[in-house]
Amino acid sequence: MSVSRSFGSVAVAMVTPFHPDGSLDIPSARKVARKLVDDGCDAVLLSGTTGESPTTHQPEKSELIRAVKDEVGAEAMIIAGASSNDTAHAVRNAQAAAEAGADGLLVVTPYYNRPSQEGAYQHIVKVTQATDLPVMIYDIPGRTGFVLADETLDRLALIPQIKAVKDATGKVDQGFMRMRRTGLEYYSGDDSLNFAWLAHGAAGVVSVAGHVISAGLRALVDEVDAGDLPAARAEFAKQVPVIDAIMGGGQGAVMAKEALKLLGVIPSATVRLPLVGASRPELAMLSDVLAREGLL
Fold first, then answer.
1. 69, 163, 166, 261: which is the annotated catalytic residue?
2. Which residue in the list 138, 186, 187, 261 is annotated as catalytic?
3. Rounded to two decimals, what is the model's pTM?
4. Segment 258-264 long-range contacts (CB within 8 Å, at least 24 positions apart)
5. What is the pLDDT of residues 195-237, one digit of tens each?
């Protein structure tokens, strides 16, 4: 199966490691990025929701891009989040990401302000026009409170720089029709629906559970590409317990960090408020699942 992939096929929305005092841990960020690429990722998303972008600041975001680009940039696409509910702020994020060496941008639909469809359209266009980088729109109404209309997406699809959509709407049927109508590349933004999206023609996945199962995601994509849906279905079934452990009970960024700490990849699972660390029951459940799946 031939699929257009401007942002690779297996991407992980990477956590941003912190030292116990909450400061940025660049050596651990390099180590996480190296693990992801060695496990099969061909794209890494920095400063997305899982990267705690609301509580990291632009100098930190740029430092993170430069370090990860230096570590794996020859082997994977580096995508940077350029999102804010303040358009001018999002534009500055995009420009700083480009200056730091990002290869592409993820632009979330505006949140909290509850803009009109026209306001959201103009926001995304302004951020897109701030650099020459390719753009992936992030459609996640459960977090933003904004529902992207068909008409707005159709207009955005006419802009050559806008190549793709990361879809976390939970509506695979809607996405299937949208990708056929607009020609935009679609990426699964919901690990529990990765197989469903790929089977419907998505270009790839932007995963959180991929911190642990990137090798399985690479196999899943390769099997769908080869047209072997039974093998892909079986591979996805193996991934479900880990997906549920990371995404089902706790908060994705929190649980992904805890998993990486359990695996010995990072020394600290520190998060910044308002996020807090996993509870003892959550940690016990996560540890049990990783052990049961042969990952510990």
1. 166
2. 138
3. 0.96
4. 258/282, 258/283, 258/286, 259/211, 259/212, 259/286, 259/290, 260/15, 260/17, 260/32, 260/211, 260/212, 262/286, 262/287, 262/290, 262/296, 263/212, 263/290, 263/295, 263/296
5. 999 999 999 999 999 999 999 999 999 999 999 999 999 999 9
